[in-house]
Amino acid sequence: MSGLISADHLTIRLEGQAVLTDVSLSMQPGEIVTILGPNGSGKSTLLRALLGILPASAGRVTRRPGLVIGYVPQRLAIDRTLPMTVRRFLSLPRRVEDAAARDALLRVGLPDVETKQMADLSGGQFQRVLLARALLAKPDLLILDEPTQGLDQPGEAAFYRLIEEVRRETGVAILMVSHDLHVVMAASDRVICLNGHICCEGTPRVVSTAPEYRALFGLGTQGALALYQHVHDHSHDGGGPGHDHHHDHTHDHDHTHA
Known about the structure:
Elements: E1 5-14, E2 17-27, E3 32-36, H1 43-50, E4 58-63, E5 69-72, H2 86-90, H3 98-107, H4 123-135, E6 141-145, H5 153-170, E7 173-178, E8 183-185, E9 190-194, E10 198-202, H6 204-208, H7 211-217, E11 226-231, E12 250-254
Parallel strand pairs: 3-7, 3-9, 5-6, 6-7, 8-11, 11-12
Antiparallel strand pairs: 1-2, 1-4, 9-10
Helix pairs in contact: 3-4
């Protein structure tokens, strides 16, 4: 197979109920694919099936031999009464060398946090540490389950920017489930709308105008999908991540820092 991982006419039943029906998708090397869907649409079920945690009721999941997957979970509960430094966390469950830990933290923009307690990190820092831990395995594919849940809009924009940079620097493929039905990272090569089955898929701009997308998610943002776009080539115009929505589908957020 040419892809890293694929689902072929995948159906998943839980307690006799079909949660996913006839889902087919394939991840190619270096791709960024975003899965959008409302609560109960089967997004996490699909990820668990791709990870091999849930068996297929029909169809199949195929992984390239030797495929290395890095997983960033939706939530990870840390007991705040239990001392756990960032450095110690990065060595669970397998010990990693100090240099590798430092490099991973540097890549996610968190130098010098090794001695901080996990419980003392902000939400955005916590998600970046989870990403650093996933990158330590040098994965071919990163799977991120709603990684920006709980972050504010600037934090979400910063995390999307980081994902773009990680893909550009490492060539890793990224499969990301998004909780936000109305904003998606413009760097996504494909967006897949899921509601028990694949309703529509395509580039962010194609999906934003698809009748199936609007039928499912057409609330707010004038019924349109907005795109976080990392702008490299012009100076800050005062339209940071918190500025008002444009009336078109693109949010050209300039992330240049003063």
